[in-house]
Each structure stands twice: as structure tokens, then as C-alpha cells.
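Bet v I/Major latex protein domain-containing protein: C-alpha cells wanted.
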Amino acid sequence: MPSMEDRRVLDLPLERAWKIGKNSFEILPQLMPEYFESIDLEEGDGGPGSVFVLTMGPGGRGRVVRERVDMRDDDRHKLKHTTIEGGDPRYSSFSSSIKYESGPYRNTTIRTWTAKYTPAPGVWAPPPEDLKGLSEKITETLHNYAAENPDYCAY
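Answer:
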């Protein structure tokens, strides 16, 4: 299964970066309405087995996407989601994981996003650079919001 990765160093302590990342569904529609009209928890409590419904805005081509949480590990600071319905039709399967770990400097965090995907049968599908770009934009938006709002997801 092909994969791609993006790593970023964030100027945030690990625990705060993790808290922001795992709770991003609560604020992304407010911060990025052009991509996320709404993100609703359809099943579960946000942990493994939960299902989120993402109603995409114009930048997300107006699709409704259902994602299942496969893993949320608070001790290892890892999340994994799999698209189960409404994803990019170029791919028959798509999953992404995000891992947060201590960064190279005090109060920094390394965020690693990894996507695994399978092109749909009979379709030429390039690597999902647009989804990688969206992940980068989400990270940048959340990071900027955290910098401007020091109480957001503070300990």
C-alpha cells in the first residue's frame, strides 16, 4: 500500500500539541469553514471505534465524509483514522495517522502525519498531495490559533 508522510516542528509543548490535535474536530469548522462546514461525532466518545461525519465546505468540494477512529493512544500521542464513506473517489482506501513526540528544543513538538492509500481499481491516482496539503494547512491553522490564544488547550 503506497504511503506519504509530512513532519513538522511545532512551537508547542508536547502535551498541549497532543490535546489540540486530538480535539481539533471541535474547532476546525470555526477556524477553516472553507474546508469544514461541520464535524460531528456520529458514534462513540471520540476514542477507537468512534465515527465522525465531516461535512466539507467549498474547499473540500462539498462532500460528506465519514471517518472511523482506529486508534487514539493518549500515552503514545497517536491518532489513526480511516475513511469509511465519501472520501476521494480516486482511492479505494485511505487512512491517516498523526503522531506527536518531543521536539528537538524545549517546548517543541514533532508532528508526523502519515497517509496510506490504495488507488481505486482502473483509476490512475497520483499520491494524494492535496490531502497532504490540507493536513499541512490544518496544522498551520491550529498552531497559529494556539499561539494567538495561549489559554486554548492549556494544561
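The longest strand covers residues 91-102. The helical segments are 14-22, 28-31, 129-148.

Cheers.
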